[in-house]
Amino acid sequence: MNNDTVSLSGLQSRCELSVNDGAGDEAASLAFVQAVVPLRRLLISEETLRDLWHIETKLLEASPP
What we know:
With 65 residues, this protein is mainly α. It has one domain (5-62). It is built from three helices and no strands.
């Protein structure tokens, strides 16, 4: 898989993560990349990954602290 910076930045922005703008959580972006790259190698579509990311975000927001 060609993980060029533009492709990865595009996926991050579609998943509503900060894209190297200095604001936001660097650890979350790193975890995202570490999770997404192997899944993309398994040919899981960006759309599916984005949908799963949005579901996970909603679950995290709904869970008690």
